From TrEMBL:
Pfam families: adh_short (PF00106). Keywords: Oxidoreductase. GO terms for cellular component: membrane. One of its GO terms (molecular function) is 3-oxoacyl-[acyl-carrier-protein] reductase (NADPH) activity. Its EC number is 1.1.1.100. Coiled coil: none annotated. PROSITE patterns: ADH_SHORT. This is 3-oxoacyl-[acyl-carrier-protein] reductase FabG. Belongs to the short-chain dehydrogenases/reductases (SDR) family. It comes from the Bacteria.
Amino acid sequence: MENTYTLITGASSGIGRAFALEYGKRGQNLIITARSGDKLQELKREIEKDNQVSIECIIMDLAAEGSAKLLYEEIRKRKLHVDVLINNAGFATKGLFHKTDYKRQHEEMLLNIVSLTELTYLLLEDMCQKRHGTVINIASAASFNPLPYSAVYAATKAYVLSLTQALSFEYQDYGVKLLAVCPGATDTHFFDGFKTAASRLRMPEDVVRTTEKALKKGKSICTDGTFCKAQMLLSRIASRKSVLGIMGKTGRKTWG
């Protein structure tokens, strides 16, 4: 359908940008959204240079109250139909919990949890009516274990993983696929200053390839990279106390 689009949040950089570039190459129409209009326009020009696709840019701060509904209403106003939703937008606060600005932590919860949930809720109805659609929620290696010094972030991503897996079961008979993607250490803004060798960081394009393989296999969860697989394995074989000790040392060393 000429009027069918893939909606990507947080599309201006990192994993979201990689999804936009890949899906554009495949000839899929795109709705790209982020806070930076300049970066969205730059991305649009880059994709349109070599691909015959329709790209709609919507400037939106999804960390603001009510923003998901505003985005949905703008999509409806433009008479666009979304058959793939990629909930990628997110950020992390880092540091000792009570020393970290609470306003930022509240915005973190609004973006990582509330907007993701509301967009999924609003678009699922249309997908169910058509009995076709895909929702890709970007979770994290932090989904599997508590992460001291980035406690709120890890908690939000645990929510994303749990929600997505539950909904993948609920909607399996409606023709709608839901997938939680758990990247590990990836070359994005989140890992700026991360104390590891650059060669060990995965690239955003790696995450996109892993996602596509998982979708073809009908999975509800996929992990990308050794770092993430280790986090998932740790959550399964170690006691909660041991996990907390290991993650606490990592968090203190990196962000404490």
